Amino acid sequence: MDYITIKTFGELRDAGYTPKTIKEELRQNLMKKIRQRENVFEGVYGYEDTVIPELERAILSKHNINLLGLRGQAKTRLARLMVNLLDEYIPIVEGSEINDDPFRPLSRYAVELLREKGDNTPIGWLHRDERFSEKLATPDVTVADLIGDVDPIKAANLRLSYADDRVIHFGMIPRANRSIFVINELPDLQARIQVALFNILQEGDIQIRGFKLRLPLDVQFVFTANPEDYTNRGSIVTPLKDRIGSQILTHYPTSVEVAKAITAQEAALEVDQEESIYVPELAREIIEQISFEARESAYVDAKSGVSARMSITAFQNLLSTAELRMLQTGDTSTTVRLSDFMGIVPAITGKVELLYEGEQEGAASVAIQLIEDAVKTLFPTLFPKIEKLEKENKQYPYDDIVRWFLDSDGIELPDDLSNFDYQQKLAQVEPVRALIQAYHPDAKSEDIYFLIEFVLWGLTLHSKLSKYRIGNSVQFQDSIQGYLRNNI
Predict the structure, then answer these.
(1) N or C: which end of the chain has fewer CB within 10 A?
(2) How do the domains of the chain map onto residue ranges?
(3) Would you place residue 230 in the very low, low, confident or very high pLDDT band (cuts 50, 70, 90)?
(4) What are the distances in angstroms from CA 150 to CA 147, 166, 213, 307, 442?
């Protein structure tokens, strides 16, 4: 039945409308979606077998929820997606500050209006999108912000004494009655403010400046927090933690494929970038592998975490680096190059917290090392492993490439090379083309030159060749020339 055309409380009651608490709404709508095989948390990847089942169990249990995990693990997104489990519209007493249910009014305003007008009490309808409130916990958050305070202006205008509860100005939580209320970074909330949440979560009353109001608010609380064992900013006080029904641990993507899906969804590229810039699949894998390397790096503070946002912003920078070159050379289209990865360094340095050793190395140096580590990790998945010790008189897959560099002056790849000149430079190294043909005969033609550069990078990282970054160009030489260059 289409209830939203109903305008009065009497019509609503006669129509047979059955009120529900927000937790009952979430539970019933989740059950319905699961039975219909609908994806409730669409756009969240990597949590299908871990976080989402736990979140669904918490909703079925009608629990308040704490999502515990490092930054960039989609905690807030999960909370926002819960809005899709709410009824499309709910009735409220029109004019109510706290979304009063006409069947269970809480505020003095709603109670008196229903007493005065009875069945003629006007009804408004609140859409699910208006039933989500969010607050970032910061040290300056006060009880007045969250719970409420006495409003002297209201008292003066209405000529009321401070003993009258009508002088109260309700805070964010009462105004989020019958809604989902999210407090992000809960440990940052001062302990005395956390204490103010006790009664709301359990007993259903609030205390404001001496007023103790029985106000059993109907709120679905979702908290987010970073693990307490490393934060120096604060912690969740034990009594509050005890009142939160389910604590759910989030995590970073466990595979490059999942990470790629997240980046592809979140990167929000311009249409002309997508049309004019080709991105080899290997380039996307390197972008994600950089984050995996950072999470294991001895230079990066693992307790701080490496957000998925790093891959997203790095991918955007990568495309912009290729786009800038394309604009400068006058090409109408281009392909991402491995040398373009130097353009993502700012995206990395701004997203990782370095340990003391990393600070000593320098943020930019650590970023470049992470890029090289990613290439080194992926190299043996595409080409034969390079042995540390090689036997004499035995032929190895890379011998012809190394010999080519011994017999030449190497190659130089300026960042601003046009597509044609870039391809001509790399085409000179014919043994690399032969290697790619041998191990990847079905490689796309668009990927060939990226693969050539990838092989050259891989050989330098395994000390078979030398690579130098001079100004705005990269030089590849044989290792002997590189040794002489550094020691003469």
Answers:
(1) C
(2) 3-249, 252-382, 384-488
(3) very low
(4) 11, 9, 13, 41, 73
